[in-house]
Structure formats: structure tokens, C-alpha cells
Amino acid sequence: MPVSGLPPYDDQNIFARILRGEIPCKKVFENAFALAFHDIHPQAPVHVLVIPKGPYCSFADFSASASEAEIAGFIRAVGSVAKDLGLEAPGYRLLANMGEQSGQEVPHFHVHLFGGRPLGRMIPAA
Ligand code: 5GP
Predict the structure, then answer these.
(1) Does the reported pTM lie above 0.85?
(2) Could you tell me which residues come within 8 angstroms of residue 2 by beta carbon, excluding any fewer than 6 positions away?
């Protein structure tokens, strides 16, 4: 069910097309719940996107509409990817944009995973 006030899921968005194998990606992880791949325009030495397999537009949609198994499976996948990339010891950052003011570009829920250098301030000064 779409979340009230948010647009319906667009199955032509770029991540939906990656999930269907219509567009290639540099995959780092895949299981029943999640796919992780390198961002095409990395903003850190490690910049990986982790996306759920289900059709959720945003964090608002995913957190409200996904099943508990999907939510648990996705969160565990994010943790596994960070660990497998060797980021636990040095540390890393997770970020999810939601909606217009965040600058969310792709309307399929995703988490950015950044690492590989000191990451500085959480939100740059405006
Ligand atoms: P958002 O702004 O929606 O949180 O982030 C979308 C991210 O998707 C951006 O960091 C952008 O570089 C990345 N992106 C957009 N198109 C593609 C693509 O075709 N392949 C990959 N791997 N990343 C993409």
C-alpha cells in the first residue's frame, strides 16, 4: 500500500531497472531481501548503495509498508555489507534521503554506505 500523500512506486526508476537486470551495476552483495552495488558517482573511497528488493519509494514507504521480515532482512544486509567491506573497524556512515528537501533523486528506497576516509561533519554548513 502506498503511504498517504506520497506518489505511487514508479517501476521504471533506475534502481527498479537495476533490480530487473536491465541496467548493469557493480554488485557487492545480494540476497533475498537486498542488493548492494557501488554508486555510479562515488562521494567517498567507498560509496555503496543498499536497496531492498521490494517496491518501496522511500524510507517513509519502506518503514510503514514493508513486512517485518523485509525490514529485518534489509537492515541485516546493510550491516553485512559494511562488515564485508572492512568498514567496521575504521567506521562508516549510513545515509538515506527521503523526499524533496533531502534531495532524494531515485524513488526506490536506498541507504548510502560511505567509508574509506574520515567523513567530516555530518551535514555540511548551508
Ligand atoms: P539519492 O540522491 O536518491 O539519495 O541517491 C541516488 C544515488 O544513486 C546517487 O548517489 C547517484 O549517484 C546514484 N545513481 C544514480 N543512477 C545510478 C546508476 O545508474 N547506477 C548506480 N550505480 N548509481 C546510480
Answers:
(1) yes
(2) 8, 9, 57, 61, 65
